Amino acid sequence: MLNAIPTGVGGALGVGLRIKARVTLTGSNYVLRGTSVVRGSPEPLSTEVLEAILSVLNEITGYSGGLVAEVESEIPVAVGLKSSSALVNSLMMACLNALGVEVRSIEWLAALGVRASRRAGLTVTGAFDDSLATLGSGVYVTDNHALRVIKHVMLADDGLYAVLLIPPTRNPIQSVDPRRFRELSPYYEVAVREAIKGEWVTAANINGLLTAIATGVNPKLLAWTLSLRGVIAAGVSGKGPALYALTHDPEAVAEAWINAGLGGEVIIAKVLGGGDG
What we know:
- By secondary structure, the chain is α+β, with helices and mostly antiparallel strands.
- About 35% of the residues lie in helices and about 20% in strands.
- The strands form three sheets. It has a four-stranded mixed beta sheet with strand order 2-5-3-4. It has a four-stranded antiparallel beta sheet with strand order 9-10-8-11. Strands 1-6-7 form a three-stranded antiparallel beta sheet.
- Helix 1 (about 45-60) crosses helix 3, helix 2 crosses helix 3 and helix 6 packs antiparallel against helix 7 (about 200-215).
- The longest helix is centred in the N-terminal third of the chain and has 17 residues, at about 85-100.
């Protein structure tokens, strides 16, 4: 919703794609192993992520043992849909539960996730907004440098859906060039001001256009998507290449995208706006 690379201020909105993590803490027997299945297909689970989780756990609990993890996820990876934030948070929560550590708040847990994500090299900005959106409901606007929530908007509209277009190509964090976003930072600042005022739809659409320019997506595709029935916002999700449309008529958007021959997979997910989270 609001890319944090150019300004340090990010905005994100959670949707109903689930991830489940099961962990076994191996104590002094230092085993480090993980498996992951994403949308039915095996996906590597890097030891760097598990090591970063253990490093943060050690700092807050003193735990110095090993970890075996199993993850099942509905979130496509390396396409800008915050799969890394969701993965780290689910693993962190599972480990805290295994150790009997009470989660103080979602802000506290999200900050731990950011700490681990930075150590694992999973984020350019810190992604505090993404981390919160994978844990809570509504729109989060955050200062990702200070790990501070600037604004949290709960949505009264419970009929809003996200339609996601997942291209066959991936865009891992290592391939992202932050300069392409920062060159447009004066214009991203306009989106930030709108988001802070609570005009998150306007912010999302400004951000969507700018991120399309930064990532090479044809802005005409977004303009056409915005003209479809029921659509209130459209853009590039995160660093891309996935596209999203927020709409009250998800089937109409999905049908239009499929008929347009854009390629890739179309996914419909419920927006988590309030008590539905």
